[in-house]
Amino acid sequence: MEDDDEFEGEVKRFLYVNRKAPHGTIYALETLETVLIAAAFDQDVSMVFIDDGVYQIKKDWDTTNVNMKNFSKTYRALDGYDVEKLYVEKESMEARGLTEDDLIVDVEVLSAAELSDLMDAQDVVISS
Amino acid sequence: MEDDDEFEGEVKRFLYVNRKAPHGTIYALETLETVLIAAAFDQDVSMVFIDDGVYQIKKDWDTTNVNMKNFSKTYRALDGYDVEKLYVEKESMEARGLTEDDLIVDVEVLSAAELSDLMDAQDVVISS
Amino acid sequence: MKFGILVNEGPFTHQASDTAYHFAKNALAKGHEINRVFFYNDGVNNANKLSEPQADDRNLVKLWSELAVEHKLDLVVCVAAALRRGIKDELIPEGFRISGLGQLVEAGIEGDRLMVFGD
Amino acid sequence: MKFGILVNEGPFTHQASDTAYHFAKNALAKGHEINRVFFYNDGVNNANKLSEPQADDRNLVKLWSELAVEHKLDLVVCVAAALRRGIKDELIPEGFRISGLGQLVEAGIEGDRLMVFGD
Amino acid sequence: MMLHTVNKSPFERNALSSCLRLAKKGSGILLIEDAVYGALADNAEGKKLAERNGDFKLYVLGPDLEARGVADKPLIDGVTVVDYGGFVDLAAEHDAVQSWL
Amino acid sequence: MMLHTVNKSPFERNALSSCLRLAKKGSGILLIEDAVYGALADNAEGKKLAERNGDFKLYVLGPDLEARGVADKPLIDGVTVVDYGGFVDLAAEHDAVQSWL
After folding, report:
1. Which chains neighbour A (Cβ–Cβ under 8 Å, 3 or more pairs)?
2. Residue-wise pLDDT tens for chain F (101 aa)?
3. What is the share, in percent, of chain F residues with pLDDT greater than 70?
4. Is the pLDDT of residue A8 over 80?
5. What are phi and psi of A33, to 5 degrees?
6. What does the alpha-carbon distance between residue D3 and residue D5 come to, in Å, rounded to a whole number?
7. Bridge partners for A16 per DSSP
8. Most buried among A110, A118, C88, D37, using CB within 10 Å?
9. Hey, which residues of C are catalytic here?
10. pLDDT of residue A39
11. Residues 6+ apart with CB under 8 A from B90
12. Would you call D52 an interface residue with chain C, using a CB distance cutoff of 8 Å?
């Protein structure tokens, strides 16, 4: 990320909250489209995956037989857009029997209590 | 209902299953529109209200301040269309602290076990 | 066997229309008949021919349209639900037609099974 | 105070657009500013001028349109979400315009609060 | 402090329970649309919420209670009823707003 | 006997639990779309469903498991994986179909 002094004081903390499973609804895909655009605005962008949202970053999607778009690798591309702050709730992972090995991207696993502090410190929260 | 011999063997049991609260989504209203049309076909029509669907027939709606359509009295009009089989699940009522006095129409309150038998005997189930 | 199909959600936002399409296609492939596909609630949004998905995504409006033409399917868009949502004649793709809710009840009466796909 | 508003569902099927409209109207009545209303996901279906609800029901497309004209609101329909769903120039009512997702991010940066209404 | 809005019936979905798990103590929580049933004292979900009303400031949208015919039902302790104008005030008074959909 | 289909994640909504309460014992239950997570043996909801697998014939839609990257995860005992053709067969073999949405 560049060091833009001109943006000082204008950088806001944007949080994208993902709580829905992929494919059953389009929210995972369309939120991802927003995040990619948001990256161009040099804001402080974070994404959190909680509840069924953790399934959005489950690896090994094969959408051939449902004939829907496989946008799984876009999560991997986020890093190239300087979107590096990805958080997952530990409790949501555990309830779903998922471990970090199941995920397609590197994320930081936080407890509900830690996530609570992080989410409360945001300026703009876009959820779906 | 007329005694149409010509329909013999063609009368099917149609069940409309209502599980969603009113107003948050349109399903209550649009299902009701279907039931009114269905009545003209001289089929054996039943409606069941389970889960948040029981709130569809809660009396005393006042939609003035949300500026949405108040279609509550349509439930009362069903009787005039010969749609007389309305069933409510006892367990859903109890979880929501509702009694028959709360309802805008006369219904038959059935236990989950009784409803289970009734629902299983249907030919066509339209749910929302 | 004669299947009727009810689609209650629009394309893309919910998977309902996709699942209904795969069901219809596979039923036909197995030699079953589809006596009608009825689009209700937001399902009427499947009948908007202006829909233009990204090149690497499926085009559900086109898929339904082509399936209808190929198999002479009756795709009916509910007039009441469609009016509310602004789906009118000028938007209706080939293979779809606008009609009343009676067509749904009729599909239930005349078919052997009615399948409901929604949210 | 400057509010941005995001509407993620179409009219009628979900209450989101109604609630957003009441919020916007009341914010304006209290002297606040609405820097933008952004329509995303199925929210783009609020921008279909062919919508014709029953006479005894509210007409959300018209209500948004009139609010925009009266208060010079900026109602932006997301181009990507709209293309997918067949909401194109010929359907866009007065007071709405089609633009990119950057307009949503900008509304978040420039406003004091971003309000999200969806399903 | 943040304002959290919840618009889903707690009987049908997990939105309210996730909000209660993840909202910071002391936050405001406003129940709107189908979530207003969660503010009623006489049902199972309202009773669950009542156990947490020391942790949050609870609000419920009056027009949505009226529309559903439950404006006369007893609310759980400590819930404040607001109208759309009050919703605007709450959004302005808090530092940011999160919607639980 | 009826075929019941459920398309909602059991973590998010009450559709599957209502189906399990109201479907007649011996019925078929097919999990599709976001409901397929409920057929997995290693999560909390799958374990709950496993306790009922003597009461119903359980099926899950393979293409939806694959799309979500969970086709290789262990399923609860007694669940049969079907494709869209198998879905059609199930609908034809049962007397009627009810969708839990």
Report:
1. C, D, E, F
2. 999 999 999 999 999 999 999 999 999 999 999 999 999 999 999 999 999 999 999 999 999 999 999 999 999 999 999 999 999 999 999 999 999 99
3. 100
4. no
5. -60, -40
6. 6
7. A47, A126
8. D37
9. 78
10. 86
11. B109, B110, B111, B112
12. yes
User: Domain C6-10+12-30+40-117 belongs to what architecture?
Assistant: 3-Layer(aba) Sandwich (3.40)
Residues of chain B below pLDDT 50: 1-7
**Does E11 touch chain B if contact means CB atoms closer than 8 Å?**
yes
- Let me know: does A37 contact D43? Beta carbons within 8 Å: no
Residues 6+ apart with CB under 8 A from C66: C95
**Are the Cβ atoms of F71 and A63 closer than 8 angstroms?**
no
Q: What was the ipTM of the complex prediction?
A: 0.96
What are the extents of the domains in chain A? 11-127
| pLDDT tens readout for residues C9-43 | 999 999 999 999 999 999 999 999 999 999 999 99
The domain made up of F2-100 is a member of CATH 3.40.1260.10: yes
D109 touches chain E (CB under 8 A): no
User: Could you tell me if A101 and A60 are in contact, meaning their C-beta atoms sit under 8 angstroms apart?
Assistant: no
**pLDDT number for residue A10:** 77
In chain C the beta strands, taken as DSSP E runs, fall at 2-7, 33-39, 75-78, 96-99, 113-117
Whole-number pLDDT of residue E13: 98
pTM for this prediction: 0.97
Q: With a cut of 50, say whether residue D39 has pLDDT above it.
A: yes
**Of the candidates D6, A115, F41, F33, the residue with the CA atom closest to the CA atom of residue E18:** A115
CA distances from C33 to C3, C61, F45, F85, F93 (A): 6, 21, 37, 14, 15
- pLDDT score at A1: 41
Alpha helices in chain E, H assignment, sequence order: 15-22, 44-50, 62-67, 84-93
Q: Which helix (H) or strand (E) holds C28?
A: helix C16-29
- CA-CA distances (angstroms) from residue B16 to B39, B64, C43, E51? 12, 28, 18, 36
Alpha-carbon separation of residue C15 from D74, D86, E81 (angstroms): 32, 17, 37
| Residue to test with chain E: of F8, F14, F19, F34, most E Cβ within 10 A | F14
CATH superfamily label, A11-127? DsrEFH-like (3.40.1260.10)
